[in-house]
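Dear U.,

For the methods section draft, I wanted the exact inputs and outputs in one place so we can describe them consistently. I've listed the two proteins in the order they'll appear in the manuscript figures. Please don't edit the token lines directly; just add comments below if something needs changing.

First protein:
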Amino acid sequence: MSGYPYSDPKFKELYSLGLADASHAEIVTSYLDWVKKNEYTFLQHRDTKEIIFMQNVKRGNDAYVRKKIPQFDEVGRLLSSGNFSSPAKPKWGRGNTKYANTMALFVTFSYGTGSYSRVDAWRSVTSTVNRWSAFARKYLGIGFSRMLISESNKNGYPAPHAILLLDAPLLVFQHRGKDGVYRWRIQDRKVVDDLHDAWTRATGGSFVVDIQGIVSGALENVDVSDYISKSLGVAKYISKSLDLASSSIAVLTHAYQKFVNKRDYISPEFWERLGRNNSSILSRLDTTNNELKPIKKIIRKIDRALVRYHGVAMWIAYAIPQYRRLRKARAYYERSMALIKARRPPPKWEYLDSMGWTTQAQLQVFMDRLQEISEHNAAILLRDELASYS
């Protein structure tokens, strides 16, 4: 039911070989066509046979926002706990300037349009920020855990944000910018220059990195959770009259993340550093599931590669080592899936079917289905009430 053209494995293979392409307008339009199709899944209770339905989560739709907002709210709440910043009064402080010690930084990165295409820039976000993090740890001499949130510029290039939780505090001061907004800036200019230099080295060019301190969970006098969630939803931008030239940052963010198959991810280490308890079995199983995703990619990649090997020499030189690697990956995957199945409780709700609609006629069919479900559930309720009197 996906309907997204760039999820096709054939397109991905041709694109990787440079034999297929997608323009900026095509990427945005295809995303909007995909996300505006409302899709719902119907579930039936294993015992009572009651039927419920829910909106499928699609990047940028209302269900996606409802799923992500609690995570970002919790990040903001834990950052506001008072454990990551405290007021400071250095002896050499200037006049009425406010100072603080903070162990949380908010970093925004930018890419030069002349050095990367939009797609290449989006594909490189994680690896480039990882390189920057390695250089930054070396320059700072202290460690940190990181949460990475991807967002687009108005031109479609990525402007990823990172929240850093430091192992040791840094002194920051409140500075009023040219726009009149107060921001917390690092006092030590050498630290600022080193972090800028780390981004230049990571990208291979002189691009901009903006660094702000997070004090009492706030950024530019706005709660961090509100700041990082401002581009989650696209519902208000979905219309036939949308001008691609003035597409919202939210639309561009989700369009390119969908195209390059990139997801924002909050690591267990970051949650642990924030003070969130992730010790439940289900949390550990979710982590195991996430760890299995790259294993599944390896299995698919080797399966495709083995098809291309012909002749004894090719098999001895290439296929046999790959086949051994494949066996190890499959064995690990099967053991992990068995663990998940053994520990996860059996679901009370079972998949029934799915429906989607974009046109008025399809909506009418969907509404008729809801009416049938309502009558079905009412009959079950009546049956249970009668049974209680017998």
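Second protein (the one for the lower panel):
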Amino acid sequence: SDDLKMAALHLKWHGKDTDTEIQQIVGFHIRTLYRIQTHFCRTGDVAKAKVLGHGCPWSLVEADAAYLVSLSKRNPALFLDEYQKLSS
């Protein structure tokens, strides 16, 4: 979990535990700990990036398309993922 990854990084940053001890505490392999640390330094987060467009694409029926067009006329600044949040 992301919480466990952050806990592992906190243990590492405090420097009181060795990497081997952290490995035993959290159950990660040492290489995983290094990958988490590298990912955090690069992105500022331990979570994996959300996958967009994963899975089978949905086909729009005419009513869905008309609804999206009406939404875009009302607020053209919104993106499709924001429209998706509105409809759920």
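Candidate sentences for the figure legend, describing the second protein: Residues 52-88 form one domain. The chain has two domains: 2-43, 52-88.

Thanks,
Y.
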